[in-house]
Write the structure tokens for this entry.
Amino acid sequence: MRMETINGDKLRGHLEAMVLSTLEHGEAHGLEILCRLEEAGCGLLRLKEGSLYPALYRLENAGEVKAVWEPEPHGRRGARRRIYSLTAKGRRKLDAGRVEWQQFVRVVGGILGAPT
Amino acid sequence: MNEFTLTQLKIIVERAVRPVRASTTRKRKMREELLAHVCGVFDEELARLGDDRAALERTALRFGNPAEVTSQLQESVPASDGVTRFWEGAPGESVLRGALRLAWTTAAIVLVMSGVALLAERWMSASTSEEVDIFISGLVFLSVWLFAIAFLTHGAGKWLHGPEPLTEWPRISVLKSFTAAWAVLPVRVALIAGTSCFLTLLGIHAATWPTAPDSWSPWALMAAGVLLTGDLAATSVLCAWVMVQSAEERRRYHEEWASLPIDNQKGAPA
């Protein structure tokens, strides 16, 4: 059976938890976070890349990730990337997000009759 | 990457960032990070497709609908950013207007603080009237001094204003402004003269210790007044230079990004 891609609308509400989850494997810049998401999603995730940064800024404002500018721009005409890492608050949010997701899958799966 | 490609990548970023209502500092952060991102994506796509135009189209497509990104970026701006927006003023604001805005704000704060001090004196008798007078005089002097700096800044701004283009990503910092200030001869002279005045003033104070300034001889008082004025003048020159330097850098940065033609939606993803 051909699997449908998962796009921005279906990801809404889960993007922040997924970003936190990718940072669990170590600090990363935006493009690296996208690569990790795509790898983990087996190529079925279709995220509009511009949407990643507002999510990162929201997480940063909430103190769930922290960001530092990379020291050198590495040939991008002076524009530097920011390196994001998970904070203790972000780790707690991720744990809570996982519990919430498992409950959601159990409830909706029970209604739809899908295997849980 | 050639200049045309870099401009096209900047346009992709600017379509999303320009309509966001946020401080210049925040938008600068967004622009730099998003530009670094699209440059990385473009390099990836160019390596895969081997054609500049196709790589640009793919980069814009992967970035997403600019209007959607704008609204998401807007949601990520915290309410506290309003304070920074006020402090920075509108993008492209003139140096004089910005300096006067800061001076007016200080004057308003001074007015409120003076009122509070007068009330405290009247109702609580916490301080003597002389102490309150000295406090209020200090505050009034501060706001008058800021207005003087505002006009000095305006003069320095007119002198600095020129078509000099940005050669690299602008990094605006207090340290950079001070370093730039030190590189300018009149500012360096003012700083050396001001420091000398201040040290001489300290010397007079040490020589007359423990006599309080109000018991100094008229000659010592006059010398102290001249030295204090010299010191304040030098500090004003430095403050004006630092303010105008960062304001000019902000203006040039704003002009560079504001000149990008973002209205032409050809090639932008739906």
Strands of chain A lie at 6-7, 45-46, 65-69, 82-86. Chain A has a mean pLDDT of 84. Chain A touches chain B at residues 8, 29-31, 48-51, 53-55, 57-58, 61, 73, 76-82 (CB under 8 Å).
